[in-house]
Design a protein that fits this description.
This protein is an alpha+beta fold and 297 residues long. Helix content is 36%, strand content 18%.
Length: 297
């Protein structure tokens, strides 16, 4: 991660998970692993190149054609196309490149530039190709990166994903229409959802930054994110100073919650969060928080 404070917090969180589960963290590059053991027919491309349009084609194609009946009925009933927000307008409608400006009478009499919808840009074959690429990616991940179990009998691995902002997310900055979501399956934000895995995002600390709104130091929450493949495993968690061993479904939300809670308590970090402008009470440790447990109900 680019921010040193954020990186340090995540590394401490990973260390706590290592200790509570008695496992060792191995840092990997999916790009490097793809070069080493990716499908032979597709290894001529980098993983980022392979996944470039894998979710873009199905997302935009289905996002348009799933509404074909609605648009047809709307035109028949009201005589016009339905209203769309700027975001959906960008997805559904694409203007053709403008012609050069001319001063001739012929240009003045020309019709305005035509528009085409995304169905003309993305074919059914491309949509199906994107879905096929996701299936290949899913099979490769579950076989080589997140298998259900190792040949040596060791449990299935947990993956820690790099997520979250280290500072402000100002809400007075207007995003460009149509650019709110990633168009590539290579984005870490997409990994769990496109592979059908549950994902836990838990607050582990907070990072100070100078706010241009309040003109003072504010604190942005820092998170750790866990995901895992399906299966069965014994996990440990602690409740009221008691260590519990639970049989959970690997990849289930509860299993990941067990691991995260046990890791946070093992590290002596805050488990409960506050409401308001800060996630934790401000402290002087490297997590910038204090451990002040809320009363048990």
């Amino acid at each position: 991660m680019d921010d040193p404070g954020q990186q340090k917090m995540v590394e401490r969180f990973v260390k706590a998970i290592e200790e509570v589960l008695d496992i060792h963290c191995t840092k990997i590059s999916l790009e490097d692993e793809w070069k080493r053991c990716g499908p032979m027919d597709f290894r001529n491309k980098t993983l980022e190149e392979f996944l470039d349009k894998s979710i873009y084609w199905p997302n935009y194609y289905d996002g348009y054609h799933n509404f074909d009946p609605f648009r047809k009925e709307h035109r028949e009933k009201f005589g016009c196309d339905p209203y769309t927000s700027p975001f959906m307008t960008k997805r559904w409608l694409v203007k053709l490149p403008r012609r050069p400006l001319y001063t001739s009478v012929a240009h003045i009499l020309r019709k305005p530039p035509q528009k085409r919808n995304l169905a003309n840009d993305i074919t059914k074959e491309q949509r199906d190709q994107g879905i096929a690429e996701i299936a290949i990616y899913q099979e490769w991940i579950t076989k080589h990166i997140l298998p259900q179990g190792r040949t040596d009998g060791s449990p299935a691995p947990i993956m820690i994903l790099p997520l979250g902002r280290p500072g402000a997310n100002y809400r007075d900055i207007v995003p460009k229409p149509g650019g709110e979501f990633s168009t590539s399956a290579y984005d870490p934000m997409c990994l769990s959802s496109i592979l059908g895995l549950p994902q836990l995002i838990v607050s582990i600390g907070q990072n100070p930054y100078k706010s241009r709104v309040t003109n003072r130091t504010e604190y942005a929450p820092i998170v750790g994110s866990l995901t895992r493949i399906k299966g069965k495993i014994q996990t440990m968690s602690r409740k009221h100073n008691r260590t519990l061993v639970n049989q959970r479904t690997i990849g289930s939300d509860m299993m990941l919650l067990d691991v995260a809670e046990a890791a946070l308590e093992k590290a002596g970090w805050q488990v409960d969060v506050l409401t308001g402008s800060r996630v934790f009470a401000v402290g002087d440790n490297e997590m910038n928080s204090t451990v002040t447990r809320l009363p048990q109900r």
